[in-house]
Amino acid sequence: QVQVVQSGGGLVQPGGSLRLSCVVSGTIFTPYNMDWYWYRQAPGEQRERIATSYGHTSPRYADSVKGRFTVTRDNSQNTVYLQMNNLQPEDTAVYYCKTPTSWGQGTQVTVSS
Q1: pLDDT tens digit sequence for 27-37
Q2: Taking a C-beta distance cutoff of 8 angstroms, is the pair 104, 6 a contact?
Q3: What are phi and psi of 85, to 5 degrees?
Q4: Distance CA 99, CA 82 (A)
């Protein structure tokens, strides 16, 4: 059984940065080929996919975060990171990472002065 555990998040001022981490545990045969997804859900809004990391290919980003957010992976540690720079109040949401089969528990990111 695959489990996904997130960490990071919190409160940051506009223009600040945060990094979220996501570790997967359990039976993973090919971590370097595993797809990772990052989503976020703001209050009253639908969950939005903001980034996708397919195996060895370059990550893809939603227009709302392109140029500010970066996904990196450490396959040796079964970990994926979401570096978020120049955060703005509209980035306030619960952020989720996901593998093809499992969701992380979600972590709150609040951008406010």
Answers
A1: 665 666 778 89
A2: yes
A3: -115, 160
A4: 14
Can you give the pLDDT at residue 112?
97
Is 19 exposed, middle or buried, given 0-12, 13-18 or 19+ CB atoms closer than 10 A? middle
For residue 15, what are its two tokens? 């223009």
Q: Of the candidates 25, 15, 56, 22, which has an alpha carbon nearest to the alpha carbon of residue 39?
A: 22
Say if residue 106 is exposed, middle or buried (CB neighbours under 10 Å; 0-12, 13-18, 19+): middle
Residue 107: the pLDDT is 97
| Amino acid occupying residue 2 | V
List beta partners, residue 49. Answer: 39
End-to-end distance of the chain based on CA atoms, in angstroms? 41
The Cα 19–Cα 63 span in angstroms is 19
